[in-house]
Design goal:
The structure holds 2 protein chains of 2 kinds.
Chain A lengths: L4 H5 L6 E3 L1 H4 L1 H10 L6 E5 L8 E7 L2 E7 L5 E5 L14 E3 L3 E2 L6 E2 L5 E3 L26 E5 L2 E5 L7 H5 L3 H9 L6 E12 L3 H7 L6 H4 L1 H16 L6 H6 L6 H7 L1 E3 L5 E5 L11 H11 L1 H9 L1 E7 L3 E4 L4 E9 L2 E11 L4 H14 L7 H14 L7 E3 L8 E2 L5 E3 L5 H15 L7
Antiparallel strand pairs in A: 1-19, 2-11, 3-4, 3-6, 4-5, 7-8, 8-9, 10-11, 12-18, 13-14, 13-21, 14-15, 15-16, 16-17, 17-18, 20-21
Helix pairs in contact in A: 11-12
Chain B lengths: L6 H16 L3 H5 L2 E10 L12 E5 L1 H11 L12 E15 L4 E14 L2 E16 L2 E11 L14
Parallel strand pairs in B: 1-6
Antiparallel strand pairs in B: 1-2, 3-4, 4-5, 5-6
Classes of the chains: A alpha+beta, B alpha+beta.
Chain lengths: 440, 161
């Protein structure tokens, strides 16, 4: 069955999507070409490749890629495959090397991808008029790779729009995370957690700005945490950070309505802003002093008062500026997704800030935590519930038409609105039905 | 602690601890820890501390209490159906005994099967217990589990190793 533009377009209605968007393996392959092959996809952070020769390997739309620092100003993103036979050149996840050498036949590349050494020399290629200086002997670059203030995104589409304008108002979420450093700098620190999900990538991406699930799906951990918190407070104690992190998941539905959701072009969104479940963490005086010294009181208050809950840069990147953590989406198959969670050090801030981010990730993003498994279970049940052919349409009906334009050029709506999902699927429809010649 | 504990008694304690987990006797298991007892599963090999690097689990008494109470909560979505486990504990060795502090460090290896809803996961690793004598038995001051695949992509893990 071929997916014509008309058939693809018919999968998305204003108020619902066809269940096939989560279920069909052919649609998943098309998504890899047309969404993940065209959008800007998050690769890594510049602090992961600090010095000339530093490298970092990851996947871009399931393809192995290699990020290398060439010199102070320049980094390159290559397809991680040897120009000779196609062997993955760098297997380690990160490291530093003066040259990149393929372990199979010894072809060696400079950090700008230019071939430095061919085992046996050029003679074997004379009949073809080729030598190690020929373009086809070099590592192949990913068509586009740009840094937005240290956050490196790449696109397989040579004609992708400029990154900063494509990010739109979600760039301010990244800005806020950076601004929270007294020196305006971030460093990846504290390791990575990789969580396997047996479900479609879109369930995760939707869930981040699903303001209706927390007090239901996370009731078991958040209610228990609230009860323990009440007991501690009744005994005159201060709330430990673990309780401050877990308890707000069981806030009243009204709290989540007030957080609100905000949707923008290209499928991007964020929730919260003025308030979020991260807004009531206790202050760290030493940190606030450092921030005030760097920015002045007024600007400091402005920075700390921005409390976006989850920002989604559709389809691959999500961040929580208020606690300096990102989650990166890596689709594997139509019903298989890996979610990576990374934490950042605010350069110039006390260690407690990083330690709070780490505590948050241990509690929420680790495979062995007591919050994430309930999300994973919800996605699993979605993946299985939607096997049912009794109903074609998956509802996105809440508050259709009720949002209003916001100052940032998008639309805002009450927290439990499905507006963000409708917006994601509008972007999905646009990517999937655009001229099929682009991307890869 | 008057004298170095017998290896057999230490083994029996580790077997008992694992059995409490497999039999879902959560409260009894929680009571094996000292008030400041910690349970730690690093997310990377040779991780120096649990504060400055993410972990798969790092629980003090407070967090252990949250998890153990959650096991009994009627609406814990990912615990319906409940996961089940089988632990096998082996290679138990007494690494050190501190007579003055009354504590000992015990090293062991484990294999754990976690089964839930037609899927079975296999985990294995090295466990370090810091134990202190308590009456005729022991209390756990620290249980550190170094999983063989700690840095892998992992699905939900819902039972203590």
């Amino acid at each position: 069955m071929t997916w014509s533009r008309e058939r693809l377009s018919a999968l998305v209605r204003q108020d619902a999507v066809d269940r096939q968007v989560y279920m069909d393996p052919e649609l998943f392959e098309l998504e890899m070409e047309r969404i993940w092959g065209r959008a800007w996809i998050y690769i890594g952070h510049e602090s992961q490749i600090p010095e000339s020769g530093s490298f970092f390997t990851t996947d871009l739309a399931r393809q192995p890629v290699l990020l290398v620092r060439h010199d102070k100003e320049t980094f390159h993103l290559f397809f991680n495959r040897c120009a000779h036979k196609g062997t993955k050149v760098v297997e380690l996840e990160s490291g530093r090397a003066p040259m990149l050498r393929c372990g199979y036949h010894g072809w060696t590349y400079r950090t700008d991808g230019v071939c430095h050494h061919i085992t046996g020399g050029d003679a074997a290629y004379q009949a073809l008029g080729l030598s190690k200086g020929s373009l086809c002997m070099n590592l192949t670059k990913v068509p586009r790779a740009e840094s937005y203030r240290g956050f490196i995104f790449a696109s397989l589409a040579p004609d992708a729009p400029e990154l900063a304008s494509w990010l739109g108002p979600t760039a301010a979420s990244i800005d806020n995370m950076i601004d929270r450093s007294p020196e305006g700098r971030l460093e990846v620190a504290g390791g990575v957690l990789r969580y396997h999900h047996d479900s479609n990538w879109k369930f995760f991406v939707e869930n981040l700005n699903d303001m209706m699930h927390a007090m239901i799906a996370h009731q078991s951990s958040a209610q228990v945490a609230r009860q323990l918190g009440k007991k501690i407070a009744a005994e005159g104690g201060t709330l430990p950070p673990e309780i401050q992190i877990l308890a707000p998941f069981a806030e009243d539905p009204d709290f989540f309505e007030k957080m609100g959701v905000h949707a923008f072009a290209n499928g991007h969104s964020y929730s919260g802003g003025k308030i979020s479940i991260h807004a009531s963490y206790s202050g760290i005086p030493e940190y606030e002093a450092a921030l005030e010294q760097a920015y002045g009181k007024e600007r400091m208050e402005q920075i700390l008062s921005l409390n976006r809950h989850n920002t989604v840069v559709y389809p691959s990147f999500t961040c929580k500026g208020a606690i300096q953590t990102i989650r990166v989406v890596k689709p594997v198959a139509v019903d298989e997704t890996v979610i990576e969670s990374w934490t950042f050090r605010l350069v110039g801030a006390p260690d407690e800030l990083l330690q709070r981010s780490i505590l948050y990730c241990n509690l929420i993003n680790s495979s062995a935590n007591i919050v994430g498994p309930d999300d994973r279970e919800a996605y699993h049940r979605l993946q299985h519930g939607l096997r049912s052919k009794g109903e074609r349409w998956v509802s996105n009906r809440r508050y259709v038409g009720a949002g209003e334009p916001n100052e940032e050029g998008g639309r805002s709506a009450t927290g439990s609105s499905d507006m963000v999902f409708r917006n994601q699927f509008e972007a999905w429809r646009q990517y999937m039905t655009a001229d099929a010649a682009g991307g890869g | 602690m008057a004298s170095q504990p017998a290896l057999r008694d230490l083994e029996q304690f580790l077997f008992h601890e694992a059995r409490l987990i497999d039999e879902k006797r959560w409260e009894e298991w929680g009571a094996l820890f000292t008030e400041d007892g910690e349970y730690w599963v690093p997310a990377t090999r040779g991780q120096p501390d649990p504060k400055n690097h993410v972990s798969l689990m790092y629980e003090t008494t407070l967090l252990r209490d949250v998890r153990l109470k959650r096991y009994r909560h009627p609406n814990a979505m990912s615990l319906q159906p409940l996961p089940h486990s089988v632990h096998v504990i082996a290679n138990v060795m007494l690494d050190s005994f501190d007579e003055a502090a009354g504590t000992c460090v015990v090293n062991s290896r484990f294999i754990m099967l976690e089964y839930r809803r037609n899927e079975q996961q296999t985990y294995g690793g090295a466990t370090m217990h810091v134990l202190e004598q308590s009456g005729q038995s022991f209390k756990i001051r620290m249980k550190k589990v170094e999983l063989a695949n700690c840095d892998s992509v992992l699905p939900s893990i819902q039972i203590y190793f």
